[in-house]
Write a structure and sequence with these properties.
Shape: globular
Distance between the termini: 50 Å
Strand content: 15-25%
InterPro entries: Nitroreductase, Nitroreductase-like
Pfam families: Nitroreductase
Keywords: Oxidoreductase
Radius of gyration: 18 Å
Number of domains: 1
CATH topology: NADH Oxidase
CATH superfamily: NADH Oxidase
Protein name: Oxygen-insensitive NADPH nitroreductase
Organism: Nonlabens marinus S1-08
């Protein structure tokens, strides 16, 4: 397995100490030309496989394809136009899909969370291998459901572009080159962490 290249890391201004695999992970829109092997993909999927899920229902499903394959082209077709403009740089494309129903036909309100757990596990595993993942909401969800013949109880939640960190800035459309160079930012903890009742941010600022 390859190690992440230090020259592609972004500055991550953390307020507290976190693991380097989390600190150095980010979502590029350009990727190295290096192919992602089947063995590497199986490691990513195995990491996802062992994610936590409500009642161990494991409602996640992953559709994937390598560049040059029919599956890749079919996934590309169901991305929104904006994402098609840069996702073509990725050696691998995936779709994250979940079953909205439990086996006994009840609504599974936790399924989207569980798919997120799968993707988070896969993301950290990928980072340990020098592989970047860029997750996308910009998918033609209903079209993708039909394209890949999932039942109506399923939902195509995300797409994921995957490949080794690297690539050239010239691979990107002009309007995205600046986005690639931006420093990473996150909300401060006191905007979303509550040791008790929820408090609106405006009230926090006044205290």
């Amino acid at each position: 397995m390859s190690s992440p290249k230090t020259d592609v890391f972004k500055n991550t201004p953390t307020d507290h100490k976190i693991h380097d695999l989390i600190k150095n992970r980010w979502s590029p829109r350009k990727f190295a030309d290096t192919p992602v092997s089947d063995t590497d993909l199986q490691s990513l999927f195995e990491a996802g496989r062992w994610a936590a899920s409500s009642s161990n229902l494991q409602p996640w499903n992953i559709v994937w394809g390598k560049k040059g394959s029919t599956a890749y082209d079919r996934i590309m077709k169901v991305l929104v136009e904006f994402n098609q403009g840069w996702a073509k740089n990725a050696p691998v494309l995936m779709l994250g899909v979940f079953d909205k129903k439990t086996p006994d036909g009840k609504d599974n309100f936790h399924a989207l969370h569980d798919l997120g757990q799968f993707a988070a596990n896969m993301s950290i595993q990928a980072q340990s291998m020098g592989i970047a993942l860029h997750q996308m909401a910009g998918v033609k969800h209903e079209e993708a459901l039909k394209e890949f013949k999932f039942p109506d109880t399923y939902h195509v939640a995300t797409a994921i572009a995957a490949g080794y960190y690297g690539g050239e800035m010239s691979d990107l459309p002009e309007d995205l080159k600046g986005e690639e160079k931006k420093e990473r930012q996150r909300k401060k903890q006191d905007e979303f962490i509550f040791n008790g009742d929820y408090v609106e941010r405006a009230e926090v600022d006044q205290s």
